[in-house]
Design a protein that fits this description.
mainly alpha; 197 residues; 0% strand
């Protein structure tokens, strides 16, 4: 990811932006959104709270920037050479996010809090827009290879894949064979559930 996406010094952010972002997500994982404070981030990161407030006027704004810029949620889109392989890799990333701490604590805290905070909901929307932009090359390559029509609703494809993971892991809290779940989910989204002739 470029430094400009991260909101670091090159794009006008504070010198210790990475430390601030990482600390923000660490505290979120430990204390939840209610327990996250700019004062706590300042104390743990060693950055003056007035510096943090200068760049991010609220904890929602700070968390929004941290979601995009922190190393814990860094993301490189896959390039396996096939749409199926790329989607399986993307879904595997989602599964890791939802099942591996501290990322799972971060994800659940953020999405739970976003339902209660309109300000945070805007920042979460920006985070997902950032992820969709990063995933777009996967779909561009699939169109170029003739695996997808050019007018495919790629956001819907990712919503179906990620939504299946969220329901299975977070809402149903079912154990799963990750490899089998990933392969079956991608196959169902791409090919449907009807009998094949």
């Amino acid at each position: 990811m470029s430094e400009e996406r991260h909101g670091t010094r090159r794009s006008g952010g504070p010198r210790k932006a990475q430390e601030i972002f990482d600390t923000t997500l660490d505290l979120l994982a430990e204390k939840g959104y209610e327990g996250l404070t700019i004062e706590g981030v300042a104390q743990r990161s060693g950055v003056n709270k007035t510096t943090i407030y200068r760049w991010w006027p609220s904890k929602g704004a700070l968390l929004g920037a941290a979601l995009i810029g922190a190393r814990q949620l860094d993301f490189t889109p896959p390039d396996t050479g096939s749409l199926t392989g790329d989607l399986e890799a993307l879904l595997h990333t989602v599964m890791t996010l939802l099942t591996t701490r501290p990322a799972s604590d971060i994800a659940v805290s953020v999405l739970g809090a976003a339902t209660q905070s309109p300000e945070l909901a805007v920042h979460v929307k920006n985070f997902f827009a950032d992820r969709i932009a990063l995933e777009q090359p996967v779909f561009d390559r699939a169109v170029a290879r003739g695996e997808l029509p050019a007018d495919t609703d790629t956001t819907l494809l990712m919503d179906l894949l990620a939504g299946a993971a969220w329901v299975r892991v977070v809402l149903r809290q079912l154990p799963l064979d990750e490899k089998d779940f990933v392969a079956r989910t991608v196959d169902t989204v791409l090919n449907g559930a009807r009998v094949r002739t």
